[in-house]
Write a structure and sequence with these properties.
single chain; about 120 residues; mainly beta; seven-stranded mixed β-sheet; four-stranded antiparallel β-sheet; 11 strands; about 5% helix
């Protein structure tokens, strides 16, 4: 059974930093290394939106609001994806979720998994 467990959320003042972690279990490191990984955030009353993604080849993409402040990375040996968040602002307050996508040989998504979410609160 595949599970994603997020950690690292908490309360931070504006301008501060946090590093979120998402560890996958129930899958091999080989399989993990082939999967695409991403972080989403969802503020109260708002749609869940993509923050950052990283492909199996290491290509990273960011939402405009995150670009230049956030960095996504992966450690395949630990089956873990990270989100380093710097220069945090109150509008970054949200529940952050990680997502893992398994693709078939054609590149189509076959399965996807969500973490339980971790709360990030940025005070002014």
């Amino acid at each position: 059974q595949v599970q994603l467990v997020e950690s690292g959320g908490g309360l931070v003042q504006a301008g501060g930093s946090l590093r979120l972690s998402c560890a996958a279990s129930g899958t091999s490191g080989i399989i993990f290394s082939t999967n695409d990984l991403s972080w989403y955030w969802q503020a109260p009353g708002k749609q869940r939106e993509l923050v950052a993604s990283i492909s199996s080849g290491g290509q990273a993409n960011y939402a405009d609001s995150a670009k230049g402040r956030f960095t996504i990375s992966r450690d395949n040996a630990k089956s873990t994806v990270y989100l380093q968040m710097n220069s945090l602002q109150p509008e970054d307050t949200a529940v952050y979720y990680c997502k893992m996508e398994a693709r078939d040989w054609t590149g189509r998504v076959r399965f996807y998994y969500w973490g339980q979410g971790t709360q990030v609160t940025v005070s002014s």
